[in-house]
Structures are given as C-alpha cells and as structure tokens.
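agent> Task received from the user: take the single chain below, predict its 3D structure, and emit structure tokens. No templates, no multimer pairing.
agent> Plan: (1) validate residues, (2) run structure prediction, (3) serialize to tokens, (4) report one or two observations.
agent> Step 1 OK, no nonstandard residues flagged.
tool_call: predict_structure(input=
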Amino acid sequence: TNAHWTAWACFKACFGEVATGDIVRKYKSKPLLVAGAFYVSGRGMRKLAGALMEEFESLAKEEKPDCMGPGFPVQPLLNKLFYQDKLEGMASSFPFGEGPIVSGAGACTDGGVKHSLTDVLEVDREHGLVRTKNGNPAGVVHLPDRCHDNFFAPITQNPEKYIRFLAGTSTSPLLLPDPPTEPAVPVVLTQAERTAEQKVLVVRQEMERQCKPVPFSEQRAIQLGDEDSGLEPIWKNYYVGAEKVEDILRGLELLRIKLELEVVAPVIEYAGPVMKIFVWDDTWHNKIREQWLLAEGLHRHPSVQLVESPEAADLVVWVTVMSRVEKELLPIGCKNVVVVDCADGCSRHPRLMDPEDLLLVFKRSIRLKRAGVFKSDCGNLAEGMKQWAYAASEGMLRKMPGARDLAVVSVLRLEGRTNVARAIAVKTAQEVATKLKVPHKFDGYVGGGGPGVLWHDKLSDPYFDLLGRAKIVVTCNPAEWEGDFRLWETFMSGALVFVDNALFLQQIPHPIVHKEHAILYDIEKTDELAELLEYYIQHEEEAARIAQAGYLHARKHHMTVNRIDHMLITARNKMEK
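)
tool_result: status=success, residues=577
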C-alpha cells in the first residue's frame, strides 16, 4: 500500500478524507516510487523542478495552504506526478528490492511492523553494501526520514532556497509566504562556489584519512552549507572543551561542599596501566549531554591521562549521536578507535566501518522495540557491539530532602510515538494514586532542563526538586529503543525507582536487580504494575530500604567514571588479545 505517504504529506488536509481515499485507491496496486536520491543531468533536474513548481503553483492558486506541511513533502508529490504521467519518462518504478534503489521504506509498506533501517540491516550483512533481491549491489540506498532524518535536513531547513536553486527562479506565494520587497534573485551556485565546496570536501576527507583533528577555532571553515541552517547557537554554545569541563567540575566540587552531599566513592575495578586517551572532536556540537558524560568520567578516572594528539594516545574515543552523519569528521586514519554510539534506535552509523583501526564499538541502544516491547537486536550483538548505557552525572545530585511529601511522581512526557509505553505507565500510576487517595504529581515539563542544558544548571533545579519530594518515581524507557537519562536522574533523587524491565539493565556491569535496587515491571502487564505500586505505597519502610539500596548501587557502580572504567577494562582485554 502507498497509504503511508498520504498521512504525513498533508494530503488529507489538502484534499479531504474522501478525496484522499480516492487518490490513494488508484495507486494501491502500484509499486511505490522512492524519491531517495537522484543521479540526473542538469536538464533533467530543471525539467523535474518545473513539474514540481507547476504543482505548487496550482495548489497556491486554489488557496490550499494546508496542502504543504511544515517540511517539504517531495516524495508524495513525485508519486502523484509520476502516476499522472507528468514526469514524462523521467522516472521509473520497481517493486521493492528489484530495482537499482534499495529503500528502508520497504518496511513501511508491510504494515510498519519493522523499523525501516532495521529492514536495510537485515538485507545487509556486509557493512553497508546493500543488495537487491537478485544479489546485485544497489546503485542507490534510500533511508527515509524516520530513521535517517538528516538526509532531508538541508531541504526542510530552507525549502525556498532549495527550490529556487533547482528551478533557477521562483515567485510562488506558497513557497514565499512573506514576499521580499525586491524581486527574488535566483540562487545558483557559481563555478567558483562549487569549486570551493569541493575543495572543503577534499580537505575534510584528507583530515579524516590522516587522523588530523581540527581545533575548535578553525572548525567553521570546514563546515559545509550551514550558513542558513539556524544551527549557529548549537555550534557555539554546545561545545564541551577542556576549559569548560574544568570549570564545571570545579563548580560541582563547590556545590557538593555547599550542599553537604555525602561522599560515596565509585568502585574502580580497572587494574591496568594508565591509559592515554584522546577525545576525537567530530566538529558537530549538538550532543552536549553525551559529551559531558564522557568528559566527566574521563576526568574522574584515576587511570586516564588525557592527551592533546591522537598520535600520543593509546585510545582515540569518539562519541556520536548520528544526528548529522554527513557533517561529522571521522577518525578514519586513527589507531585504536573506540566508538561510543549514543544514537536512538538500533540502527548503526552508516560510516561505522570507515575507521581503519576500529578497536571497539559501544552502543547505547542495541535493540528495537515496538510500544515498549522487545522485537529484535537488529544483528548488533552478532556484529560484536558492546552494550553501553548513559550514567549518573555528579550534576544530577541535590541535597536529600528532610521529608518526602509525595507518594508517587512521574516526570515523563507522554506525547508522540516514542512515548506510548510511558503513557501506559503513567496512566496506571495515576489510577493507583487516585484509588488510594495519596498525594502525587505527574508533570513532564517541570523545570527548564533538556537537550541543551547540563544537569548542574539552575534551570534543572525544579525538576530535581520534584524528584526529591517523591517516595516513588515511575519512569519508563522510550517505546522504540532502550536507555534514557531519566533513569539515572531518578536514581540520584533517592526515591524508589519503578522502571520497565529493559534488557540492557541486566547486561551492563553490576546489573539493576528487581526488588533489590529498583522495581522492574512489564509494560504489557499493567495489572501487575498496579499491584506493585499499591504494595510499595502501602509498605513505606520496605520501599525506602530498596530506594536507599538503589541509590547507593548507582553511586558506586553507575556514575560516569564507572562507564569509563568498563571501557578501559574492555579495551585492555581486546588489545591484549
């Protein structure tokens, strides 16, 4: 079926439910045209852009502003034009897996039971060489936006510029809702601009090959096409450099003394020689929390010596969240590369096997889930990936409250596909709290923390204050993958942690044990979750005992320095072999 592309392309808003059904019905037996990539001549691209512009102008004249979504729905429009024979032989359509393009979107056409990128990985057992059904390498691999959204980022960030670039000129009121006072100037790259971009690309590739890191002050010169992306604040403010790390760590020491936080020493198990480590900067700074967890752990570990060049290092450690893979500078030519992949989902970095001397790959989210239920490990374990997990940061610590006045608290957000399991858990907790008439609070938007804010920031204080008032905190992993920051934030509050029984909890060093460190529930068994909540609300002493044990377990075995300790042990064992 092709119904999935009408849902996200605003066709229903544009044509209405009945008319949309009529449009789709004619095409359900036809193969889907995948607009994943184009290898075309300039003449063909202009012809294609002309067909798209004609469609846009038609919609604008009909005064249908809802026909265009917040992004740029090129794929459904191309399908519509294709099946109306308006592309005049410019495109061909094949059943999934039989043409020159292999697409992860094939998974979307069988009812959505699989993750799109997972579908690609099941076909691909040779690290990126995706094959068609007849066994030949695919000429083009298309990964749809749900699992590789950076593919579309340049378009969605500035569709007007993209279309004007393709078409040479545009005056469409639909594309330019606030018309400029001067006539639109065609955006066409000159030969000099094209040459300059190509030179930058060559420079980046050479830096990767030579294992040559780029100082922060020089990184802007090697970024491609970001001048209009609105990402300048991310590039400037999210950078975790050495001076920033030292300032934050000093601040945390002062905060610990001021709040009279008890000292609980993490257990260090690595007994080998000092490891010299170089932290690879891929020049993309939108992962401040992941970078911070790594930096804090490295600075706190007694057997780590941070060095200023990869040549002087025993290990080159690179942390990625796979959000802008085409802009990352990879440690291709470095020795003993350790990748810490903190991306959501079970998908693997498309350039994961590019480093020539890849020692280890740690991955936070190894498994695929649906509505919180395990489906597959996506072949990650067979590929030798090691389980990683986020950790508790010292910045999550606050002074323990004298009294906890709320029986149950949850700070989970419930909207969207990735939060459906969380919504189930919170609904169950609300029903129990209401039934027992105990004080409770459920607020997914308390405080001002989030992706761009580290935990020690005062913006996070209201969030941690609410956790500190709780006797029980109900949390839950995302519905489609495993691992989040909220689990470790909750452990640091000292409350009794209720969390769904994700597999990674048993596969990290010093696992989280049910009824010893936390209460692990099955998201599919809400009756059991309700019974557990009722029991521990009514047995406060037992709840407090497990809460204290869980808190101390996390302080001893699940701080940032413990993750680095595990990295050193694993790396040392691999190097000795």
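agent> Step 4: summary for the user.
The two ends are 51 Å apart (CA to CA).
agent> Done.
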